[in-house]
């Protein structure tokens, strides 16, 4: 008798947990080639909810960055905490020097519940390699 009761209750608990954890929202999280990132930027230019996130060090950022980018140092001890303070509903294009740190950052953003975030494959090296604009110091 007990086995007959436990099995249905267990199934109900699992189903309830699934419903609670599945919000029904699709998370957009993808790697983009330079041309795709350029297109994404063009579609979102001037929108307040579009954030270019440079996860390089402040020194790297000062040496050249994408126009309008926000710098958040991947190597900072409080990186994850700082990232968690950002609006998870914004659209993010994340980049670094070569794409490694930004790819890892994208994974962290997924864990934190960010809804739409993209990684620039090849980072700023690939971006500059395509001859696209970078803000350089005077």
Largest sheet: 5 strands, parallel
The percentage of residues in β strands lies in 15-25%
CATH architectural category: 3-Layer(aba) Sandwich
Q: How large, in whole angstroms, is the Cα Rg? A: 20 Å
Number of domains: 1
Give unreliable regions as ranges: 13-24
- Which CATH C-level class is it? Alpha Beta
H and E order = HEHEHEHEHEH
Proportion of residues in helical segments: 40-55%
Oligomer: single chain
Average of pLDDT: 87
The 3D shape can be described as globular
Distance between the termini: 80 Å
CATH topology: Oxidized Rhodanese, domain 1
Overview of the structural elements:
With 138 residues, this protein is α/β, with parallel strands linked by helices. It has a single domain, classed as 3-Layer(aba) Sandwich (Oxidized Rhodanese, domain 1). It contains 6 helices and 5 strands; from the N terminus they run αβαβαβαβαβα. The protein has helices spanning 2-21, 34-44, 58-63, 79-84, 100-111, 123-129; strands spanning 28-32, 50-54, 70-71, 91-95, 116-120. A 5-stranded parallel sheet has the order 1-5-4-2-3, sandwiched between helices. It is globular. Residues 13-24 have low confidence and may be disordered.
Kindly list the characteristics that best describe this protein.
five-stranded parallel sheet, 5 strands, single chain, 138 residues, 45% helix
List the SSEs and their pairings.
Layout: H1 2-21, E1 28-32, H2 34-44, E2 50-54, H3 58-63, E3 70-71, H4 79-84, E4 91-95, H5 100-111, E5 116-120, H6 123-129
Parallel strand pairs: 1-5, 2-3, 2-4, 4-5
